[in-house]
Amino acid sequence: MNGNSALVILIAAIFTNNILLTNFLGMCSFIACSGQIGTSLGLGTAVTFVMTMTTMINYAIYHHVLAPLGLEHLTFIVFIAVIAAFVQFVEMFVERFSLKLYFALGIFLPLITVNCAILGASLFMVIREYSFTQTVGFGFGAGIGWAVAIVLMAGLRQKMRYSNVPKPFEGVAVAMIITGVLAMAFMGFAGMVSIQ
Predict the structure, then answer these.
(1) Residue-range domain boundaries for the chain
(2) How far is residue 15's CA from residue 132's CA, in Å, rounded to a whole number?
């Protein structure tokens, strides 16, 4: 059992152990959808919601169904099925209540299903042996951390439109450089709190 409180895990998941900037999980939608702050904020909110809810559901399924029945070998399949079902719910919700955001996110909204950061959060919850409250703190913190990273990236990419970026570095190349610099910036929080 991990001895950290849920609040410590939440803060660490946002800053010192940011799932995107320390483990580089969820990079595909991070790079593809970080062109506009509004789109990034919408996707970050959707990822946070899905990550929080699926870690909670996956915790219950793992500890009350899979582990007691000795079916731990089905963990990946079950976790992915839960994530896919939740993403379908979020997609229908966004389409119903924010058509503009739905069209802005485009194909990347259903691709939250295969966002490895969401699956990674559920797997980290099992590996680190979190309690339910720790799982909620980690899922919410990891989602907020991912959202903070994509919104920061969107802001920087919007500023770069007015910058003189050398031709070889335009597009994905400069986005990867900025991601590396953001990761180093978040390393400055390393002494604050850490989770393993």
Answers:
(1) 6-187
(2) 21
How high is the pLDDT of residue 77? 94
- Global pTM reads 0.86
Q: What is the DSSP letter of 74?
A: G
Locus of tokens 């597009």: 171
Half-sphere exposure of 155 (CA within 13 A, CB side): 8
Do the Cβ atoms of 146 and 45 come closer than 8 Å?
Answer: no
Q: How many CA atoms lie within 13 A of 175 on its CB side?
A: 20
Residue 88 CA to residue 138 CA, distance in Å, equals 23
How many whole angstroms separate alpha carbon 78 and alpha carbon 40? Answer: 28
| Tokens, residue 42 | 């919408």
Kindly state the tokens that stand for 120: 């990674």
Tell me the average confidence (pLDDT) per consecutive run of 10 residues in the chain, 196 residues long: 82 90 86 83 88 95 95 94 89 85 75 84 93 95 94 89 80 84 84 68
